[in-house]
Structures are given as C-alpha cells and as structure tokens.
Amino acid sequence: MENVRKLPEVKYQELELFIDNLEAPKESLIQVLHKAQSIFGYLPSEVQLFIARKLDIPASEVFGVVSFYSYFSTEPKGEHTISVCMGTACYVKGSEKLMNRLESELNIKSGETTKDNKFTLKGVRCIGACGLAPVITVNEKVYGKVKEDDIKNILNEYI
Q1: pLDDT tens digits, one per residue of 118-150
Q2: What positions does the entry give for [2Fe-2S] cluster binding (predicted)?
Q3: Of 42, 55, 58, 119, which has the most beta carbons under 10 Å away?
Q4: Known binder of ligand: residue 126?
Q5: Do 115 and 122 touch, CB atoms closer than 8 A?
Q6: Is 90 labeled as ligand-binding?
C-alpha cells in the first residue's frame, strides 16, 4: 500500500502551467511525464491521476506508459542515487560485495531509499566502464576499481 503523501500544491501548479502551454497536450504524454518527474522527483499515483485528468485520457494509459519505461519511477528517490554495476566484469571483480557493503552501511536493500531521503541504492546491468571494474556511480560521478574499504569514504563525500 502506497503511503499517503501530501505533495506541494505549487508543484501541481507548475505542472499545470506546463501542460497548458503545450500545443497538443493529448499527444505529449511522455513529455508531460518527464516534466512531472523533474518537478516531483517521481510519479506517484496522485500525480498520474492529475495528468490523466489534465490530458483527458484514461488513467490506465498514463499508468501503462509509466510502468513500461524504466526511466519513470513511482517511488521517491534520495538526494543521491548510488548505482552499483552488476555487469559481468564488475560482478566477477566483486560488485556483489560492494552492494552488500552499501546495503549494510546504509541499512537498506537495493532499490530502496534511506529514511532520511539522502541515498537511493540500486543495481544496474552495465555502466559501460568495464576497464574500471568494479564500478559504482553516485549521481553522475563514476568511482572505478572500488574496494569494500573505499565505501565509507565515498559515502562520507555525500553526508
């Protein structure tokens, strides 16, 4: 069951203004979803329903697009997203141990966000930096040849 959250009205107004200025709103669902996610940080069901009403399209259509594209998130993300590459090269060189260490340090599992909304942790298929394996990223910053003992220092950069 989704937690009931009260989202700021000013953010809805910003999204409404964006939609109202589109030339063909009904044909701009993905563009609207991108904007909504940039405004709210994620796409909870109440935002999806708002979009459906504003675009005068079925809520199931909005939900279908949100659930199809992995880019869209229905859960809030932390201030910093930590991605652990689980591609073959990184996995062989210990990315699973890095993931375990991060889960332990942050007290969350992969796919979750810390209670203070500081960090979101996730495993990704391949970052495309196999020569630096094992690799993690924090937001857009890449950390290569990471060892378990490096984790605490990396996290301290963002605390």
Answers
A1: 999 999 989 899 999 999 999 989 999 999 999
A2: 85, 90, 126, 130
A3: 119
A4: yes
A5: no
A6: yes
Closest residue by Cα to residue 114 from 97, 128, 102, 132: 102
Q: Within a domain: residue 104?
A: yes
Q: Is 73 annotated as a binding residue?
A: no
Residues 6 or more apart whose CB falls under 8 angstroms from that of 11 comprise 39, 40
Q: CATH number of the domain at 89, please.
A: 3.40.30.10
Structural domain including 105 reads 80-157
The residue count for the chain = 159
Give the DSSP letter string of 99-129: HHHHHHHHT--TT-B-TTSSEEEEEES--S-
Residue 73 domain-assigned (yes or no): no
The domain total for the chain is 2
pLDDT of 9-28, one tens digit each? 999 999 999 999 999 998 99
Shared domain check, 128 and 96: yes
